[in-house]
Amino acid sequence: QVQLVESGGGLVQAGGSLRLSCAASGLTFRPYVMGWFRQAPGKEREFVASIKWSGGSTNYADSVKGRFTISRDNAKNTVYLQINSLKFEDTAVYYCATNSYGQAYDYWGQGTQVTVSS
Question: Are residues 9 and 76 in contact, defined by beta-carbon separation less than 8 angstroms?
Fold first, then answer.
């Protein structure tokens, strides 16, 4: 069974940085894409960034371009999200997910809380 475990969240001051990790286990094959999403209080979950396992091409939401960087470590089956220049509006629960076949995101982690203080 596929399991995704996020870590690295916390409380950080505006302007600070965090690196989130998503460790995947139980994979029988590498998914087509891994993605990060976030959900702020009272808001819908939104796409943040994604990376293709093969080739490593990336995609970002406009709101995070230039501040967030997604990367992967194939040997560790781990995906990272480097978050710089944190803003108050980045406060959310961050989730990673697999998109096994390039269609829908099918497996989700439990999320890690990122709270940005002013």
Answer: no
